[in-house]
Amino acid sequence: MKTLSIAALVVYLFCTNAAAAPKNIPSPKEVVIAFYRLALIDFRPKEAFALYAAPDFVEHSADSAGGTARSTVDFLTDLIKKSPQPKWEIVRVIAQDDMVFLHVRFTLAKGATPVVIGEIFRVHNGKLAEHRGPRKWLR
């Protein structure tokens, strides 16, 4: 009886520890915020993609020809270089499961009309897997 109880306890502990989420993997929300800050607020898209994007990352925005992390880095690097004083501000973040939505305000230069951007990310195993970025001009 004692052996059976110890065996049941070992099985229980093994199953509960195996089912628990690893504590060292950041939440999808944390991944997206860290990525966005590094890529666009700190103007370092190449580093951000190296740290936070999965190798098979897919970009669904028409702005990035090719839909890869590389083409997106090229697009963002070019946008930052060509913009007089670009500024991205995260207004709000909504996260559910592996999906994260950012409401962002982008201003091309000081005094310019801001653009409201909706950024949708899917995170898998702590890395960005996909991105969609529809936009609308403020009126």
Averaged pLDDT: 85
Q: What is the CATH topology?
A: Nuclear Transport Factor 2, Chain: A
Helix % is 25-40%
Query: What is the SS-derived class?
Result: alpha+beta
Regions with pLDDT < 50 over 5+ consecutive residues?
A: 7-13, 15-19
* Tally of structural domains: 1
The CATH C-level class name: Alpha Beta
Main sheet specs: 6 strands, mixed
- Estimate the strand proportion: 25-35%
Question: In angstroms, what separates the terminal alpha carbons?
Answer: 75 Å
State the helix count.
4
Rg, nearest Å:
20 Å
Oligomerization state: single chain
Output the keywords.
Nuclear Transport Factor 2, Chain: A; 139 residues; 39% helix; single chain; 4 helices
Give a topology summary.
Layout: H1 2-19, H2 28-41, H3 45-52, E1 53-59, H4 69-82, E2 87-96, E3 99-107, E4 115-124, E5 127-132, E6 135-137
Parallel strand pairs: 1-5
Antiparallel strand pairs: 2-3, 3-4, 4-5, 4-6
Quick rundown:
The protein has helices at residues 2-19, 28-41, 45-52, 69-82; strands at 53-59, 87-96, 99-107, 115-124, 127-132, 135-137. It has 139 residues and is of the alpha+beta class. It has one domain: Nuclear Transport Factor 2, Chain: A (Roll).
Explained architecture:
The structure is a single chain. The termini are far apart. This protein has a single domain, classed as Nuclear Transport Factor 2, Chain: A, CATH 3.10.450.50. It is of the alpha+beta class. Helix 2 packs antiparallel against helix 3. It has 4 helices and 6 strands, in the order αααβαβββββ. Strands 1, 2, 3, 4, 5 and 6 form a 6-stranded mixed beta sheet that branches.
